[in-house]
Write a structure and sequence with these properties.
Distance between the termini: 25 Å
Helix content: 40-55%
Order of helices and strands: EHHE
Shape: flat
Number of helices: 2
């Protein structure tokens, strides 16, 4: 059963831009920290998380065999 307000707009899914990598890295780090809070033995945290994710995702975005996507309000 959904919580809160219903979603009224559909996001546009598209390749992420270099300018979006810092925000995507922040979201990835937030998810890592949430996983660590739920199960610290399984999910390790090595701070700072964001720079590593930004480097990794930026490299992957240039890799022809990888895809890094962004969901933005349409």
């Amino acid at each position: 059963m959904p919580h809160g307000k219903p979603i009224t707009c559909r996001p546009a899914i598209r390749p992420a831009t270099a300018a979006e990598m810092p925000a995507i890295a922040r979201l990835a780090a937030k998810l890592v920290r949430q996983h660590h809070e739920m199960d610290p033995k399984r999910f390790m945290v090595f701070e700072p998380i964001e720079p590593g994710y930004q480097r990794f995702l930026s490299k992957e975005a240039l890799n022809p065999d990888a895809v890094v996507l962004a969901a933005v309000r349409a």
